[in-house]
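User: Before I run my own analysis I want an independent prediction to cross-check against. Here's the chain; please return only the structure tokens and, at the end, one sentence I can use as a sanity check.
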Amino acid sequence: MSPTSPAASALASARRRLSTPPAAGRRSRGSPAGGGGGVSKKRNSLGGPGPHLVQLNLDFGQSNLGTVTCSGCGMVYSAGNQADAVRHARFHASRRPAAAAATAAASAASASAWRGQQAVKEFFNGDRIVRVSPGAGGGVGWQRAKEIFRLMDEELGQGTEPDAYSGMLVLLYVRHQSGIVGCCIAEPIRTAYRLLPPVEGAEAATERDTEPLPAQCGIHKVWCQSGHRRSGVATTLLDAARSCLYLGLQVPLSLTAFTAPTPSGYRLACRYLATDRPLVY
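Assistant: Structure tokens:
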């Protein structure tokens, strides 16, 4: 028998390794689980490399994600979007000087400045609710009230010409030594509509029923300075509006309606009317 050459021995060893199946669960180092040599790369339908995806937000049920409305400036923005948050911060800051100036003007109109106006209700602590109109008292109270209208629209994120309120019932809450802290504007109405329940996740209801219902008192706007909220100012103004709108008649809650409210206004209407489907007009 002739001796085996080194080359033949190496060839035989290689053949034995190739013919022996690998043990279960074993794969060569560096190979993917699906077999084949090297690491595969995802490719798109055109044959090029797949798109580079970036995770922008992680939603784990946080309450500060999604579309929100700022109660201070009225801007609607996406709380989870960094660019939106920056734009909101700039917009909010730009409105502060105007709001501060209007607040100063309202505070300057102290309680003593409104003693000549018609008082519809007075309280033991010196607070009063006064009614103002363009012709009453030579129009002085109405000119002062225009500053309140500007402040109110600034905080509610709305814009209305002050003279548009001239035919409505305008009530101002005068707090002793603090000046004007609240305003309610109401008007007579004949019909209103019931709000439908808000959709899941929404801050307020936005859709109304199509069936008209009888109504008498329309609350066009109600506002309270931020530092005096949750002290009964808005509720007291609403009660006074229902009492003063018609001579000798107290409008019942069931015939009181609001204009399309903001989220905070919707919550106020629900609390005041004791229903989750208030009337709107």
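Sanity check: The chain has one domain: 68-280.
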